[in-house]
Write a structure and sequence with these properties.
224 residues, alpha/beta, Phage tail protein beta-alpha-beta fold, Methane Monooxygenase Hydroxylase, Chain G, domain 1, 4-stranded mixed β-sheet, two-stranded antiparallel sheet, globular
Amino acid sequence: MHRWPSFIAGLLVVAVIAGADDKSKSPPAAKPEDSPTVKRTRMKLEIPVTVDFKDERLKDVLEEFKRQTEISFHLDAGVSANQAFTYAAKDKPLKEVLDEMFKGRGLGYVIGRKLKEGDRYEGWVIINQSDERGDPIVKGAATSKPEPKTPPTKSPTPPAKPKTTPSTPADAERLAASKLKNAKILLEDGKTEDAQEFLEQILTRWPDTKAAAEAKALLEKIKK
């Protein structure tokens, strides 16, 4: 007669342990919903591009993509802007072009999200060292960036190639303004040397634009 309470108590202990085990197996966090800005970038990644790069620096490659799709790009820490690419495509969606170019180079990309105040790259395409293609590989971790399995191949830095003059003044104004915007972001991040390079490019390539006057003033301020 005295064995029943002990038996019941044992069942209760098993039930409590099983319940605790079930709680520990929580479902993975849901993927955050795309904001309108992120949705627009996804659509732009479907835009067909036509390119023919021969030992072009990554920074110049991304500038050409931006010209054709109006997507802004940002290089994550550790990604060299000077690594060279040789690649050609005709009327191919940009996301497919990026996949083919980055395959075997240890590079990937994610669409930036604004998860907290101060996240300035929402809607930008962030180039990083990973196998990611638009979204992080790890589900439920929208901002996580896993360590690359293999380090990216470093290509020798080719000499800078002279740029052709934009076909119209409007093109010049738009490209110069884009360079100026990037230079200001770099200055805010404390990357003075990189910002100075952008500003000098504006004065060299588009000296007659509105952005050139502001670029000159910023250069003078930097060199003081």
